[in-house]
Amino acid sequence: MQLNISNAPGTIPATNVEFLTPVVVGKTSRTLDSLAAHFESSLHISTPQNLAVQESPRSLRIPTSVIFGGERATCGTTPGKRVTIRSKVQSFDPQPAHKKTVIPQELHNEVFIALMAFCHSRYILHIYHTNIVKDANILMHYALPTPPRFPYLPERAAIAINCDVVDKHYSESEILHISAIDYLTGEVIIDALVQPVQPMAGWHTNQDWLSKQAKAATTITGRILKGWPEARAEIWRNIGPNTVLVGHNLHRDLTALRMEHWRVVDSAILVSEAVGYSVKRRWSLKALCNQLLNMKVQNNKGGGDSCIENAFAVREVVLWWSRHPTEVLEWATHQQKEWHKGVRQAYNQRRTNERRIDERKTNVTNSDVWVWPTGYEGL
């Protein structure tokens, strides 16, 4: 087939370009249109009038099966020979569908103002050890505050983050997975594995999500962040000093990221302030989702917790908390009563056990007391 290509302004001169194709399927004009659209060429293509088009001896059959399982993809082709393609990309099990509240665009400003009302003061953050670096030489790197944003770069108003952190001892912690979503839109911003800076031998972790796939993923190249410095850089690309960070027990995540941030909404601190400081119980994210939202999370038996699932869960908890102040007060009052009731029951049980021990000591019979034999009383 021979095409006459006329020169267009700003293009390379070309004439009489030949395409060696034995068979052209479909109509000539439609085929040329699709060819031009595919390459998005600025060249003007003209068709000779005497171009002969041959019909395909066999109708084209669209592939009907594309199966992605693990690292293999099987495609149905024509003729009936099956072609197996093996991908070199590390594959992971798909994440389950997450519950996500959709906030209309016109309500974003109202939701953000409500979220700002729950930002903790610096005094509260100091009490709960958030943004406090007790050991300044954590891995010989200082914790840095969030840098200011450039004027031409967009800044997220609020994001919810969650990190899977492992500890060796107090001054050393590493991130294995980091997830961040937009608090207002629910858009997934970051969901990546993190290759630890230090070897994992000797680290204390009881988390089941550190599976064989995750261990293998920390040694391959791809969409994997190199240690906490790249994880922190990814966070800083999307936030500024005025961005609100939402999370659960954020002090642990910020310590692992070696960063300081002062606009924080921590669901664990919200619960502690609501129930009162006299209540010593600390609620996990799983317990909050179960009691407040009637939503089950972290139910992957043997597969561990999902980092992105926890990020969505903490977003739902804070959204519910900001929109239901009456229910929050009722729940907090009920938890206070249950806590003090349990404390009184434990105190009464302890006093009962002490009285029983005292009674056993006073009701000892004479046969149980050893007496000196006769003649030895004066010794």
TrEMBL record:
Would the keyword Transferase turn up in this protein's UniProt record?
no
Residue span(s) of domain Exonuclease: 157-327
Extract one GO cellular component term from the record: nucleus
Sorted alphabetically, the keyword list is: Exonuclease, Hydrolase, Nuclease
Q: InterPro entries recorded for this chain? A: REXO1/3/4-like (IPR047021), Ribonucl_H (IPR013520), RNaseH-like_sf (IPR012337), RNaseH_sf (IPR036397)
Q: What is an example of a GO molecular function annotated in this UniProt entry? A: nucleic acid binding
Top-level lineage group: Eukaryota
A GO BP entry is: ribosomal large subunit assembly
Name assigned to this protein: Exonuclease domain-containing protein
Q: Name the species this protein comes from.
A: Alternaria alternata (Alternaria rot fungus)
